[in-house]
Design goal:
Layout (H helix, E strand, L loop, with lengths): L2 E5 L2 E6 L4 E6 L8 H12 L3 E7 L4 H5 L3 E10 L3 E9 L9 H16 L13 E5 L5 H11 L10 H10 L1 E8 L2 E11 L4 E9 L8 H13 L6 E7 L3 H9 L3 E12 L2 E11 L2
Parallel strand pairs: 3-4, 10-11
Antiparallel strand pairs: 1-2, 2-3, 4-6, 5-6, 7-8, 8-9, 9-10, 11-13, 12-13
Helix pairs in contact: 3-7, 4-5
């Protein structure tokens, strides 16, 4: 399982599963040294990639060190400054998609963009109920995630982790079929930066094809209405047409593709960034 730790005053996630370091939050104090420190740390661990998320005004030092821009989200920080998603490849082979993956990524992106802003979707059957999940439902949520994902970059299979994050910065939402949890997603909030990542979407195979992800996304957006959160985004599996279509239909805009970035269900996959202004 990847681990989250402080590096200076900044926060990183790293581990062998995704074979990378992910700079999740960069503090101004660490700006000058961070590009090189991350590369050195990645070399020490034998990782193939460094992936960074930072404000536009902090990106220059990374670019000088050979990092490349993979995605950009306008108004990512406090509804004003763009967020830049950067990659540095220690394993140069990882910097290029395989020919098969490249075909699928392009096909899925076209499918998603062709569905832009088509918000109409099937109404769920009467037995379905969508709501924000409570700590008492963490065990059921962990069970759902274990049933859907073979592996995951965050410890969402642990009910204790889910309860802990509910108390700090993540709001989880679920769809119940009568009393059984059949789909879920989360809104991971960064209130200091005014943005939220819509993530961890999962639906049991027996309940797919019923717009569960779209209903969850709409419920999360509604719950965040009127809050300090101004921009929503997601990092979606580029090899999965469904999630990209879901976000495009809901008015999210494409921000770029993160090449061979995240390990999900047993392999490292490219990811697409989508974003939407909530204010």
């Amino acid at each position: 399982m990847d681990q989250i730790e402080r590096l200076g005053d900044s926060i990183i996630q790293h581990g062998p599963a995704s074979d990378r370091i992910y700079l999740m939050k960069l503090k101004e104090k660490d700006l000058d040294s961070m590009p090189g420190v991350l590369i050195n740390k990645a070399r020490q661990h034998g990782y193939g990639k460094v992936f960074c998320k930072c404000p536009e005004h902090m990106a220059g030092g990374f670019l000088k060190q050979g990092y490349v821009v993979e995605a950009e989200v306008p108004c990512f920080y406090s509804g004003q400054e763009p967020g830049i998603f950067l990659g540095y490849y220690l394993d140069t082979a990882r910097q290029t998609l395989s020919s098969d993956d490249n075909v699928v990524v392009k096909k899925n992106l076209k499918l998603a963009l062709d569905k832009a802003d088509h918000q109409a979707f099937l109404e769920p059957a009467s037995q379905y109920r969508c709501h924000e999940l409570k700590a008492s439902e963490a065990d059921a949520l962990a069970t759902l995630y274990r049933a859907v994902f073979e592996s995951y970059p965050f410890p969402i299979f642990s009910a204790a982790y889910l309860r802990d994050t509910m108390e700090t910065h993540i709001r989880y939402f679920g769809v119940l079929d009568n009393s059984v949890l059949v789909a879920a997603a989360s809104a991971e909030m960064d209130e200091d930066s005014g943005n939220v990542e819509m993530t961890d979407f999962a639906t049991l195979p027996s309940h797919r094809g019923r717009s569960m992800a779209q209903h969850l996304l709409a419920e999360m957006e509604s719950a965040l209405s009127g809050s300090s959160i101004q921009t929503a985004y997601t990092i979606a599996r580029a090899l999965s047409a469904g999630m990209n279509i879901t976000f495009s239909k809901a008015g999210y805009r494409f921000g770029g593709t993160l090449i061979n970035n995240t390990q999900i269900s047993g392999r490292i996959e490219p990811m697409n960034v989508w974003y939407k202004a909530l204010g």
